Amino acid sequence: MSSIKNSAPARQTSRKLALTAVVVDIALVLIFVLIGRRNHDEGFTIAGTLTTWWPFLAGLAIGWLVSRGWRKPLGLVVPGIVIWLATVAVGMLLRLASNQGAQPSFIIVATAVLGAFLLGWRALAILLVRRRREG
């Protein structure tokens, strides 16, 4: 019976970590979109931002589902790389399907920036967790 009681806080912590990871990923994809729109003088409008954001958001969701990201939200390879590549690949395919375009230079920049964002924060989080355990 005590193992059941002890597993409840662990599940709660795990859910909280997964939810936090999803929120961070969503926020970073939004930041990517906002930076891109600003750099291309598209400005900020809610409609414009949503139009640019939704394909990558769909890709992010697919990456989370395919990788089962909630199981190990801070994993760099799984789910990190899977989420990153799905975000870019699905995002670009959906941009093309919705006549938003996907120039080769944009694909390269999006791949690099989203990789730095989606893998970078996980790498930092892993380092912080290790430091806490050691210290």
Structural summary, described in words:
- This protein is an all-alpha fold and 135 residues long.
- It has one domain (2-134).
- The protein has four helices and no strands.
- Helix 1 packs antiparallel against helix 2 and helix 3 runs antiparallel to helix 4 (104-134).
- The chain crosses the membrane at residues 17-37, 43-66, 73-94, 106-129.
Brief description of this entry?
It contains 4 helices and no strands. The radius of gyration is 17 Å and the shape is elongated.
SSE diagram, text form:
Elements: H1 2-39, H2 46-67, H3 76-97, H4 104-134
Helix pairs in contact: 1-2, 1-4, 2-3, 3-4
Envelope shape: elongated
Low-confidence regions = none
Gap between N and C termini: 32 Å
> Structural class of the secondary structure composition?
mainly alpha
Largest sheet: none
Number of helices: 4
Rg calc? 17 Å
- Strand content range: under 5%
Task: Summarize the amount of helix as a percent range.
Answer: over 70%
Secondary-structure element pattern, one letter each: HHHH
Mean pLDDT: 93
Oligomer type: single chain
Total domain modules: 1
Tell how many strands the DSSP assignment holds.
0
Pfam family, one: DUF3054
Transmembrane segments: 17-37, 43-66, 73-94, 106-129
Organism: Saxibacter everestensis
Keywords: Membrane, Transmembrane, Transmembrane helix
